[in-house]
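Second attempt. The first submission of Transporter substrate-binding domain-containing protein had a stray character pasted in from the spreadsheet, which I only caught after the job came back as garbage. Lesson logged: always re-copy from the clean sequence file. Corrected sequence (266 aa) follows.
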Amino acid sequence: MQEIRSKWNAILAFLMLVALSLVFEPLPAHAKDPVPVKVGAYEYGVVYFFENGEPKGLVPALITLMNRMQDDYHFELAETSSRRRYQAIEQGEVDLVLLESAEWDWPDYDVLLSNPIVREKDIYLALSNRTDTKELFSDVTAHRLLCVLGFHYGFANYNADPEYLRDNFNVSLHYNEGEVLAGLFANEAPIAIVSAGFLARQLVDDPRLRDRIVIADQPDATYDLVSVLSKDSAISLDAFNALIAELLATGEVERLWRQLHIGVSG
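This time the job returned cleanly.
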């Protein structure tokens, strides 16, 4: 009887230990919250634009794709302006600005540049009812030009300073590419400069536009678009480049960029 009682006590003790281990078993560690990364963007071509009041373009698309493919970082859109973007990086308002040319004043700032993501070009436009388009495009700086305030142009060696442009070239500066195109049709100047992506979007909205304009054979500039990261960015340059490389390998970025340039080569 004593032996049975001892065995029973041993069984009870074992069961008690099992029960206690279940009660006090450590809970599985929760995954860390993703690190927020603020992405600066401003209205430019098909990089970033508005449609029915909603932000569109490659920047919002890239943000969505990058958030879907990993959970270490959460990329968030933070609007800025073409002239404000440098201060936004310097003052930590954004961690990075998506899709910039490395030649657009960035050498003057202590920033990091990512690997190339896509390639864009800016083109000269004139009205098709003119008979002197060949002359216009042969020496664009001899004529009045419609440009965007804060944008960088090849004819000016990428110097975007408004005073420099006005002092050295015959330019009319507007706030966006839509105003530049409207100025061309209003005969404010014989030549307008817009990005290939912007023109492609306009041609989709109004195919008749193609008959109203002439595109110069030579662009104002062709350039790679990279991302500019703050030195204190929440995501390191290596981590960002790795993420972009993985995204580019899927072919989705190239597909989206081609789609945004239908009718006009990028």
